[in-house]
Amino acid sequence: MSTVGPVSGTSGGATGWRAAAERALYGPGGFYLRQAPAAHFRTSVHASPLFAGAVARLLERVDAVLGRPERLALVDLGAGRGELLTGVLAALPEPVAARLTPYAVERAARPTGLDPRILWCAEPPRGVRGLLFANEWLDNVPLEIAEVDPAGVPRYVLVTADGRERLGAPVGGADAAWLARWWPLPPEPGRRAELGRPRESAWAAAVATLADGLAVAADYAHTAAARPRLGTLTGYRDGRAVAPVPDGSCDLTAHVALDACAAATSGPSWRLTQRAALHRLGVRGTRPPLALATADPAGYLRALAAAGQAAELTDPAGLGGFGWLVSAAAGPGGAAAARLLVDVADDEEERAQDRHHVGDQGAGQ
């Protein structure tokens, strides 16, 4: 539990977690400006080329819904070192790849040796038609942390560069309204919440860059039905979870309130698990028939390896449990593109359950 300290936003070298994480991750000499993400943590993109193949199939379907435009865009938001775009380009049929403009949106410098077809940019392009994909991007959008003090009052958590925390001012204004709606905290000292307004704004702005098509965010996620009692903020370095210290030495991540992000878009949005999404895109961990081992031993081993990779990507206790947020762009093809992935009836039932759980949380415990 954090100690109660001065109420100002900055005091004694401490700031709110949003400013501290922004500086540590993206400021001069920040973690993401110096480090390749794959050196510190493994995402679905790195787990198997099947993931890029699934994104390629989704892009092909979006392309068909949009009438196969002369210029098709694939925007990779939080592109790392361009691994996803490289994999998608390798998986696409040549006629589609020939019309594609792939955009890697990343604050770090362009890596050497990247496919010259990939455009490297600091901001997503505006007015394009196609697919915007954000794999594990929202969890790195910095936000404030709130903690309930001994009197039962939610306060901002302040942190120094070496990771020491104390409590600051009571949560107020728009953050208090967000907390009341999306993450109600009972008056239990030590309970925490991660205030997701910056992520809502970031996702709504990203979706708005598309003239038509589909935007997908895939990430660690939770919803009103199961908010974590103590939050999820953590660090990663060299493949291991470490204490979240905002000094630029590690990744800083917190799971995403995808239900709140879904409500922030101007058009319709839906949610599903990565397992469900990848199943609908043809990725399943089905073992090949044993007869193939005799007829084509090498083919059997390849199919067995692919089945193992698919099982990892769709494991409900791991990557398959990630949330996918599917948001339609404002153009006429957006909602039709979303239905390529989403069973709208199932999603409406899930959102009704979320509303029920929000009411339960608001009643306190």
TrEMBL record:
Domain of life: Bacteria
GO BP: methylation
Keyword Lyase listed: no
GO molecular function, one term: protein-arginine omega-N symmetric methyltransferase activity
Keyword set, alphabetical order: Methyltransferase, Transferase
Protein's UniProt name: SAM-dependent methyltransferase, MidA family
Organism taxonomic ancestry: Bacteria, Bacillati, Actinomycetota, Actinomycetes, Kitasatosporales
